[in-house]
Amino acid sequence: PEGGVATHSATVAAELRRQGLPAAEAQALGRARVFGNATGDYGTGIAEAAQADGLKAGDARLGQLFLHRMSQPYVNGEPLKLSRPAVAAQALGAHLRRSDAALMSRSSHLYSMLSSDDPFQYLGGLSAAARAAGRRQGLALHVSQLQDATETHTESATRGIALEMQTRYLHPGWLKAQQAEGWAGTLQVLKAVQYTFGWQAIAPETVRPDHWQSLFDNLVRDKQNLGLPQWLQQNKQAYAQALERMIQAQRLGYWKPDAATREQLAATYRTLTRAAPLHQELAGVRQWAADQTLAAVREPARTTPQAAPQVTAPTAPTEPPPTRGLLLQRQQPPQRPATALADRLSQALAWVAMALLMSLGAAWQHRRHRPAFTAL
Q: Radius of gyration (Cα) for the chain, nearest Å?
């Protein structure tokens, strides 16, 4: 929080006093630091709301839902009783509006940012609640990695999700392990896609467009040649729901794939839902898939000429742009001058003549000093 703890508490209390809350309750809420579900309630409701058909990009209702469900204050482990319980949401919002960051700790590699809906519901929910309470930007979200006591460090939620996407959900080792699990493995793939969309909806800055493209390239186009589409089709409804999340990301503007990707995504989704209809199919997604079909049919019609083409006079060819660079041309080996060749030949003959004279002189000397023998 901005400033000291006492200043922060007094500021929140003063804001609540202006809402007509009794001074004692306003001060208690200003000092409260623990908020959660009311007794008998559980969860934020964000995981279900993020899959609603009427969801919008950057939907403020998700943050308001968090404030409503998670604003019960606790003091010394006991729920704080208020004369006006509804004001508790304003108190939590006042605290979050004056906060800068939220932190989640992880002490195991078993569960990560995208392996459960809890991280985006609670850590991401704090950021959405701060925006809903009037903070211009969401909270800076961080994750403390405490798995190795000798290498503890803190990283942004955005970096944590990106690393997890590459080392787990897009990694051939993880995908092959899910294939080995058969039908149950398809549910793990579905959960990863759903939780990715959960982060996208609650904290849009944490998921990049290329994450969606990579999921499509692997799960639909089988980029790594693992046979993923054929394997996923054994659970057509789970496969269709995973594609439904991809379509939602495109519909809400978080991902802008090219026309070929959209057509293939729509065609695959339609094929799956015809074979195994979804019990709660999103009407907006179904309409999007139908629109892509119409667009694919109309596109060739727009490019096909409706009348015979008119004959026009030929136009002069345009000059090609100048080519710049180094032009490599074959070169002939240099010719040796005739005079130089004659000089070398004369020099060689001179050496041969000198060697011959030396040989003759040596033979003459040998014969001159050889002893004479007299025949007996």
A: 40
Number of Cα atoms under 13 Å in the Cβ half of residue 158: 9
How wide is the angle at C-alpha 220 spanned by C-alphas 258 and 178, nearest 5°? 145
* Residues whose CB falls within 8 Å of the CB of residue 177, separated by 6 or more in sequence, listed in order: 185
Question: Given the DSSP bridges, would you call strands 140-145 and 101-106 parallel, antiparallel or unpaired?
Answer: parallel
Looking at residue 110, the DSSP 8-state letter turns out to be S
Q: Where do the domains of the chain lie?
A: 1-156, 170-298
User: Residues of the chain whose pLDDT is less than 70?
Assistant: 1-3, 297-343, 345, 361-376
- pLDDT tens for 280-293 read 999 999 999 999 97
Distance CA(223)–CA(215), nearest Å, equals 10
Interstrand relation of 34-36 and 78-79 (parallel, antiparallel or unpaired): unpaired
3-state secondary structure of 22: coil
Q: What is the pLDDT of residues 206-238, one digit of tens each?
A: 999 999 999 999 999 999 999 999 999 999 999
8 A C-beta contact, residue 120 and residue 202: yes
